[in-house]
Amino acid sequence: MGDVKGGFASIGECMIELSGNSGDQWRMGFAGDTLNTAWYMRALTDQSYPVEYVSAFGEDDFSQKQRDFFQSHAIGTAHSPTIKGVHPGLYAITLSGAERSFTYWRSDAAARRLASDRNALKSSLSGRDIIYFSGISVAVVFPEHRAGFFEVLRECRAEGSRIAFDPNFRHQLWPDRKVAQETISEAMKLADIALPTFPDEQALFGDKDAEACAQRIQELGVKEIVVKDGTEPALVLVNGARALVPSVKADAVDTTGAGDSFNGGYLAARLKGLSPMEAAQKGHAVAARVVEIRGALAPMETARAAFEAASTASKT
């Protein structure tokens, strides 16, 4: 995977999350798919190994709280720009019985400008071992910046970085299905490692099963593909060779971040030199423990214990 000094960079949007059980008392936290994966990469790599979250921030107090949060957990922000007059995206979770609903304020979020300064983006990403992004990262970037965003990724890949991509399709972030299909397919062509989730891919592309999903992505030129499918086995397709890797039994209470934590476990394992099949076992093990805890960000020590236990189990 290259020199360990290169580190891991995750690109995307960290949002302010407001949640509360009742009344007018709200709890503030931070959330985002690529943030979740960066969190688990931080948990599962040596503390001296650089883990960076690449985005864009405002000058406001909430943006500073985001930066403080990253710093307190040994996650850097590389050369992410600070932009005057903009703020983080925000969403609120409201409960009706056991059902959760989400209200978003993100149309002019700072992160939409993460590719506005091409030089800053290139400086943040150049020389990394692994660069990770998602379909949400692509969707939130202003459309006029996407070509430059993709070009920077293309350059970094040509220089030796490995690109990992989770399409993570969310229909509400796209103007229509055709634009989503075209843009996500274009992004996928940049990837060395694809980490799709089958129900998302079926909703967007109409794939009949995980095998069809993997074949479609392989035809885009991706050599390493892991199709996640909840509690079903993950389909691993590497250079034409396929395997099914069973999930790990869990008493799930909250599936938020399950796929993101799988990705973190998988990529951390690949970084350590494990095979794709072994890495998928690690990803399942981490995700199984994460879904047993409320919230997307399980304690780092919980993730580490699951990751290490999976390596012991695979040797017995």
Description:
With 316 residues, the chain is an alpha/beta fold. The protein has a single domain (4-13, 33-56, 67-79, 112-315), classed as Ribokinase (UDP-N-acetylmuramoyl-L-alanine:D-glutamate ligase). The protein has 11 helices and 12 strands. It has helices at 33-44, 61-72, 118-125, 135-140, 143-158, 177-188, 198-205, 210-219, 258-271, 276-290, 300-315, and strands at 8-11, 15-19, 27-31, 51-54, 90-96, 99-105, 130-134, 162-166, 193-194, 224-227, 234-238, 241-245. It has an 8-stranded mixed beta sheet with strand order 4-1-7-8-9-10-11-12, sandwiched between helices. Strands 3-2-5-6 form a 4-stranded mixed beta sheet. β5 and β6 (99-105) form a beta hairpin. The mean pLDDT is 94.
| β-strand amount | 15-25%
How much helicity do the residues have?
40-55%
Order of helices and strands: EEEHEHEEHEHHEHEHHEEEHHH
**Can you tell me the CATH architecture?**
3-Layer(aba) Sandwich
CATH superfamily: Ribokinase
Largest sheet: 8 strands, mixed
Low-confidence stretches: none
Q: What structural class do the secondary elements suggest?
A: alpha/beta
The CATH class, by name, is: Alpha Beta
What is the mean pLDDT?
A: 94
CATH topology: UDP-N-acetylmuramoyl-L-alanine:D-glutamate ligase
Strand arrangement across the biggest beta sheet = 4-1-7-8-9-10-11-12
Number of domains: 1
In short:
The chain has eleven helices and twelve strands.
Properties at a glance:
Ribokinase-like; 8-stranded mixed beta sheet; PfkB_Carbo_kinase; UDP-N-acetylmuramoyl-L-alanine:D-glutamate ligase; 316 residues; alpha/beta; 4-stranded mixed beta sheet
